Automatic annotation (TrEMBL), chain A:
UniProt name for this protein: (2Fe-2S)-binding protein
Gene3D superfamilies: 3.10.20.30, [2Fe-2S]-binding domain
Lineage, uppermost ranks: Bacteria, Pseudomonadati, Pseudomonadota, Alphaproteobacteria, Hyphomicrobiales
Keyword Iron-sulfur: yes
Gene Ontology MF annotations: 2 iron, 2 sulfur cluster binding; metal ion binding; oxidoreductase activity
A Pfam family recorded for this sequence: Fer2_2
Species per Swiss-Prot/TrEMBL record: Georhizobium profundi
InterPro entries: 2Fe-2S-bd, 2Fe-2S-bd_dom_sf, 2Fe-2S_ferredoxin-like_sf, 2Fe-2S_ferredoxin-type, Beta-grasp_dom_sf, Diverse_Oxidoreductases
Keywords: 2Fe-2S, Iron, Iron-sulfur, Metal-binding, Oxidoreductase
2Fe-2S ferredoxin-type domain segment(s): 2-78
């Protein structure tokens, strides 16, 4: 067993893990942060997407030990002061989710897309950049709408901060 | 309609927990002392089990127990069942082989469960499972329907000679032969409907907890119908009597049919919990899901359609071979028969139809209902035939359809169904206008100028939802009734709980069902809670599949609301000293019509519970239940048109535009309905362009067992969709609802293939229409 320590959603955490423990399992099982989901075993579906040091990462593709000392943000950590993140609000506003299972990963990946592209985003870019996240319910139509809508809102919030 | 009532695009109440990571799925559940299970599965598609040696595995750290099929049999756990009896044309019952939850003597597909390993952690269970030494004696394998029926083919179950489960017919063979004898034109096609893997994003999971002190079992499971799971596990698998078994389906991450069935894993986890004395959780990984979730479709069909000289359809003959895999899953017999051949009249007047369906065992994963279940297969046959007929007859595809549309209702088809209402032309016109059908020729010319091939194709589908009238399905072989139940509990402060036997796994019931109450009583949807998915809370229900939650589930709620309203009016009339017939309910108040007398809803509710001043003889409280059994199926219908551009150099197809014009009857929440259509279209387009399940015919290995190999539709594979609704209210249920959950997946595949074949000018193209296949078809044309 190895001891790992990292910051998760602004809080310093640590735990004992096996060398082979994936970050997603550390988050889900050691920390009880079950919003990050496991939908596949080949790094294809993106349901486990989190942010590590400000970048979107698939938490099934990194060992917990590799996350030592990093700053992790999960779906549970993006709403601030009880207020939804603009991407969360946009997914609700545009009906960008149905069963909700892919949703945390979709939202985390989408925030990263907007962080990198800002309000220059167009539909084609969103569709291309979301190819690492699979949704079986929505046909992506409303997810794309939500991301484009949030791109404006997210940029406004960052400007204000 | 109020702002939260019927017809309003109300944002979903359930969203907050999902967008904040607070959804509670089965694998999120943790109970004290919980241990983890991994299944040992057959690596062979067909083999005898000679010996199972667990000695090495049992010595591994953390291992609590390893159990196999012999012990399961010793404990009297029953075989998995098929819930629908189908008879062959000679009157004999279907030839069903035994399906043990853990295979004891023979394995019949890759993934067949052989043993369960329970250990402290999932990783330890997996390590130990790898060391369970199962000695197999390999047997010959067959994966395709033609090979399975051939003389000398490997025999998969002793009960089914030549692997034939049933040889079933529907319709009038002589009348159909007579119609063909008068035909001026006959169109013939061989049509394959490709096998699909449902791929709900949440993998299946089960948590079985046996409480020895109470002799009671609890099962958390990824189910679309927890009550049916409890019934079947109790009545057939002998896990426990119903009063000793609680089944909970919490948040469920998509189903699409694949979570209807009661699989070996949940039965074995419950049983293993008693055997080992610890709570046992199993969570499927994705490869395991590919191997063991019931697959969909997999039909091989020959169809012939007879026309008179004026292009009216005279008759239809269909012969289908349906691959049911290695075992008969719960609804597997109904899917290629009563959910398929009964829709072979499509939207058309067809005087005579004859269908023959052979169901066949193969050494592959069991096949059962997947989004649409039989109706996509029927629609694909009909709409490929109609488009091909139009091409062969030299008439325009929409005009051939118009000429043959059913226009008066009710309409009795030659294949059981009585269509209650519809306006097929309205949807056709709306779709043609939306896609600018008239302008297609100039767009095609523009594509040609760039060296691209543009095509347009349509599909006019009809399907049967709202399953189903219990007596009718009982007479056709169903083992259960297909009604739904509801209970409405008005609390003393006026808030309301709706208990429903429907189950939401993405459909938004917590919002739409609350909208019904808002419409009825004028109370806000925030004061209405929907309770579902727990057999301890909701007495009984049949669950969600076949687009039945609106037409059947909501109708049960309406019946219960009727009873609540009647009692509420009696109480209000008594308190306001008015005539019961003069009471109206508006905006959360009970009013005496024509006066200024009002009673707030919550005061009426409080009066029901204080019982200080109720009408003489009235029981206190305000809680009413209802069971609703539909009088007929419902018949959603519509027209989908797809426009594509094919790159002749690469064979790659791009969908330029896709329009959907649907008649779902009355709509509760347009936003949610459109979301259902989007998702259905994505699955149908996925089937047409991307998804295909492949087995190695020699070994029976599933070649497409991961997202690396099975092409799921991604965001950049799909266009945005244009959707419209035409409405003919369903006369068969109180809300006029038809159902919308499956239409997209049913109607879209033929529209896509009709468009591509139009673009490339050849009709020989199978799904999925990969660039390689399209290129080959184009260059062989």
């Amino acid at each position: 067993m190895t001891k790992v320590a990292m910051k998760v959603n602004g809080r310093q955490v640590s735990g004992e893990v096996e060398g082979r423990t994936l970050l997603v399992h550390f988050l889900r099982e050691n920390l009880g942060l079950t919003g990050t989901h496991v939908g596949c075993d080949t790094t294809q579906c993106g349901a486990c997407t989190i942010h590590m040091n400000g970048q979107a990462v698939k938490a099934c593709t990194i060992l917990a030990a590799q996350a030592e000392g990093t700053d992790i943000v999960t779906i549970e950590g993006i709403a601030t002061g009880g207020e939804l993140h603009p991407m969360q609000a946009a997914f609700k506003q545009h009906h960008g989710l149905q069963c909700g299972f892919c949703t945390p990963g979709m939202i985390m990946a989408s925030i990263d897309i907007v962080n990198r592209h800002g309000s220059d985003l167009d539909e084609q870019t969103v569709r291309h950049e979301l190819e690492g996240n699979i949704c079986r319910c929505t046909g992506y139509h409303n997810i794309v709408k939500a991301v484009l809508a949030a791109a404006g809102a997210q940029e406004q919030r960052q400007a204000a901060e | 309609m109020g702002i939260e009532g019927i017809g309003a695009s109300v944002l979903r109440k359930e969203d907050k927990r999902f967008i904040t990571g607070k959804g509670r799925y089965t694998d999120d559940m943790v109970v004290p002392g919980m241990k983890h299970a991994v299944f040992v599965r057959s690596p062979y598609a067909h083999a005898k089990i000679v010996n199972i040696d667990t000695s090495e595995a049992e010595a591994m750290p953390g291992v609590i127990g390893i159990l196999n099929g012999k012990q399961l049999t010793e404990d009297g756990i029953g075989n998995l069942i098929c819930g629908w009896m189908v008879h062959s044309k000679d009157g004999s019952p279907m030839n069903m082989g035994a399906w043990r939850p853990l295979a004891q003597d023979t394995v019949r597909y890759v993934g067949d469960a052989v043993a369960i390993v329970v250990a402290d952690t999932r990783a330890q269970a997996r390590d130990a499972a790898d060391l369970v030494n199962v000695e197999y004696e390999e047997l010959p394998v067959v994966t395709g329907v033609e090979d399975a029926l051939a003389e000398g083919a490997p025999q998969i179950h002793p009960e089914a000679k030549n692997n034939l489960i049933f040889d079933w017919v529907l319709g009038d063979e002589q009348a159909t032969a007579d119609a063909f004898s008068k035909a001026a034109h006959v169109v013939k096609m061989d049509i394959v409907n490709n096998r699909l893997v449902p791929n709900a994003m949440e993998p299946r999971a089960a948590l079985g907890v046996y409480d020895a002190a109470e002799d009671h079992y609890t099962c958390w499971t990824t189910s679309q119908n927890p009550h049916v799971a409890r019934l079947v596990m109790s009545a057939f698998y002998n896990v426990a009597p119903e009063n000793k078994l609680r089944v909970i389906a919490p948040d469920v991450g998509g189903g699409f049919g694949s979570k209807i069935y009661i699989y070996p894993e949940e039965i074995v986890c419950l049983w293993a919990s008693k055997r080992t004395g610890v709570p046992v959780k199993w969570n499927c990984d994705r490869t395991e899901a590919f191997l063991t979730d019931a697959h969909g479709r997999d039909h091989v069909t020959h169809a012939e359609m007879a026309f008179d000289a004026d292009h009216h359809i005279l008759g239809l003959k269909v012969e289908t071979k349906a691959n049911l895999g290695a075992y008969m899953s719960l609804f597997s017999s109904a899917t290629p028969t009563y959910l398929y051949a009964t829709l072979l009249s499509g939207q058309y007047n067809i005087p005579a139809i004859h269908a023959n369906v052979k169901a066949i065992y193969t050494n592959t994963t069991p096949v059962d209902a997947y989004r649409g279940a039989g109706r996509p297969e029927a629609t694909y046959v009909m709409e490929r035939m109609m488009e091909t007929a139009a091409r062969q007859l030299g008439v325009s595809p929409p005009e051939l359809r118009r000429k043959n549309f059913i226009r008066s209702f009710p309409h009795q088809t030659p294949v059981i169904m009585t269509y209650d209402t519809g306006d097929f032309e309205a949807s056709l016109n709306a779709a043609m206008q939306a896609i600018d059908y008239a302008g297609f020729a100039s767009r095609r010319a523009e594509s040609e100028s760039r060296g691209k091939k543009r095509g347009i194709g349509m599909s006019c589908y009809i399907e049967a939802c709202g399953i189903a009238p219990s007596a009718a399905v009982g007479s056709l072989g169903a083992g259960v009734g297909l009604w739904e139940s509801a209970e409405v509990r008005v609390n003393a402060v006026g808030t309301i709980e709706i208990l429903t036997g429907s189950h939401s796994h993405g459909q938004g019931h917590e919002t739409t069902f609350a909208q019904l109450v808002a419409e009825r009583f004028g109370v806000g949807i925030d004061s209405v809670n929907i309770v579902h998915g727990d057999t301890d809370k909701v007495q009984m229900g049949m669950g969600t599949y076949g687009s039945r939650s609106g037409a059947v589930g909501m109708s049960a709620i309406v019946k219960a609301l009727d009873k609540v309203e009647a009692k509420a009016k009696k109480i209000a009339a008594h308190l306001m000293e008015a005539d019961e017939g003069d009471i109206v309910i508006e905006n959360g108040e009970l009013k005496v019509a024509g006066t200024d007398k009002t009673l707030p809803w919550f005061q009426m509710a409080l009066a029901a519970y204080t019982a200080h001043n109720l009408p003489s003889g009235m029981e206190p409280g305000l809680k009413e239940g209802a069971f609703y059994d539909p009088s007929n199926f419902t018949f959603p219908a519509g027209c989908y048109i797809c426009e594509v551009e094919v790159d002749p150099d690469t064979g790659k197809t791009e969908i330029l535009n896709f329009v959907a014009a649907d008649d779902f009857g009355n709509i509760i929440n347009p936003m949610i309905v459109e979301g259902q259509v989007h998702g259905g279209l994505a699955q149908g387009i996925g089937q047409a362009l991307l998804e295909g399940c492949h087995y190695d015919p020699q070994t029976g290995q599933l070649i497409t067992a991961s997202y690396m190999d099975y092409t799921m539709p991604r965001a950049d594979d799909l266009p945005s969709f244009q959707i419209s609704h035409q409405t003919t209210p369903c006369p068969g249920n109180p809300l006029g609802i038809k159902g919308c959950g499956e239409a997209g997946a049913i109607g879209s595949p033929p529209a896509v293939i009709n468009a591509i074949t139009d673009a490339i000018g050849t009709n020989g193209l199978s799904m999925p229409a990969s660039p390689q296949k399209v290129w080959a078809a184009l260059h062989n044309a």
